[in-house]
Write a structure and sequence with these properties.
With about 290 residues, the protein is α+β, with helices and mostly antiparallel strands. The chain is built from 8 helices and 15 strands. The longest helix is centred in the last third of the chain and has 15 residues. Bound molecules: fe (ii) ion. Fe (ii) ion (FE2) binds next to loops.
Length: about 290
């Protein structure tokens, strides 16, 4: 049976129903899902009763998975699922000044997951397990289409940016967010990396303007000038008309293409309501530039 695809905005994002991700998809159905992912960048699969193992199995069909590094926000565990949660290991709400809460504030800025790694993430999948009661205050996730942004750039700008690299640096974005929890270990683990500013999708050749909060400056350009240009491009890329806001429901699995979309977490009453999402991350296939 073919999958049902319902576009969620005129630009990108689609809801996929008539698939049950608790069981392995046959190859033909998976090919349709994969095709939809490459086309729409954001896929929403509602009402999926997934265990971690099921989420890992589905995610793994898109490529090898990143493992979480042990750090303060995940209680120093290394695994394929990372928990985005405001509950401590005893199941109690964390306090606003808890380092694990503070650490996540950076997710409120527009970013592409793992763009600070030499091989950045291809896709991330978030599964909603526990949410605040009001779906308008559930900690929405907002997405912005980097393909729409690229398409709207003036030709002269496209030519100027083609072949240029931005330097993405984890310590830069963390400092920018006012988060001083990075330590030397993290700085060493994630040294500055170069990423192509214009990226083409290997399957359909659609181009995207690959910017975000981890992008610090532009290679072979004076630092202040490059930074100003990146800030201008980020503001351009995240205009309302190219965004989709996801209002979470328990059971939603949302998959997003980090090569073609930015995302940010919207604020919610983090110290009042439990919110738990489980994330898997599909690694990219190689560096974006030499
Ligand atoms: Fe993220």
């Amino acid at each position: 049976m073919p999958i049902t695809i319902r576009p969620l905005s005129p630009v990108f994002a689609a809801e996929i129903t008539s698939v049950d991700l608790t069981r392995p998809l046959d190859d033909a159905t998976f090919a349709e899902v994969e095709n939809a992912f490459e086309t729409y960048s954001i896929l929403v699969f509602p009402k999926q009763k997934l265990t971690d193992d099921m989420q890992i199995a589905f995610s793994s069909r898109f490529g090898s998975l990143e493992t979480t590094q042990g750090h303060i926000a995940n209680n120093f565990q290394v695994k394929q699922i990372s928990e985005i949660s405001n509950l401590d290991p005893q199941g109690k709400l964390m306090k606003a000044d808890d380092p694990r809460v503070v650490y996540r504030l950076g997710q409120r800025n527009w970013h592409s997951d793992s763009s600070f790694k030499k091989v950045p993430a291809k896709a991330s999948l978030l599964h909603a397990r526990i949410l605040p009661p009001n779906s308008n205050e559930c900690g929405q996730t907002q997405f912005a289409s980097l393909r729409a942004a690229y398409d709207a750039l003036p030709d002269e700008r496209k030519r100027f940016l083609d072949g240029k690299a931005a330097i993405h640096h984890y310590a830069y974005s963390r400092r920018n967010d006012g988060i001083t929890l990075t330590n030397n270990k993290e700085d060493q683990r994630f040294p500055p990396v170069a990423q192509a500013i214009i990226r083409a999708n290997p399957r359909n050749s659609r181009k995207a303007l690959y910017v975000g909060s981890h992008a610090s400056h532009i290679r072979e350009m004076p630092e202040a000038e490059g930074r100003a240009l990146l800030q201008e491009l980020l503001a351009f890329a995240t205009q309302e008309q190219w965004t989709y806001m996801h209002h979470w429901q328990v059971g939603d699995l949302v998959m997003y293409d980090n090569r073609a979309a930015l995302h940010r977490a919207r604020p919610y009453a983090i110290t009042e309501h439990a919110r738990v999402l489980h994330r898997t991350t599909v690694a990219g296939e190689g560096p974006t530039i030499q």
